[in-house]
Predict the 3D structure of the following.
Amino acid sequence: MESGARVVTNEGGRQSPANTLLHELGHYYFQEYDPMGMYAEMPDFYTDPAAYSKWESKWKDFAESKGYDNVEDYWIIENPENDYARKEGEGTRKAHSYKEVYRAKDIRSLEGSTETEIGDDK
């Protein structure tokens, strides 16, 4: 997604650039602090590939059951991103996808021109 481009949710609500930044910071937090305990139980791929495959399937199935491609995006969107969105009166998401993007006026703005194709990362 290009700089200045922010999300319009599938439900039609807008999210600010600040929320987009929070989402991206959530990736660091998830990988560093493992809030769901996913990495703590991860078997070593090289010493036990069968256990690793079972672990991977378990978490993939969990994410898909919630409507997400992966557990990391599920946790980020359902926790810090949507919590912030509700607090600030922004649109929330139920999946990692989005309808379109818009160019925000500033970091906390929900105003700006809608552009259905800004970049190719949709």
Remarks:
- The mean pLDDT is 86.
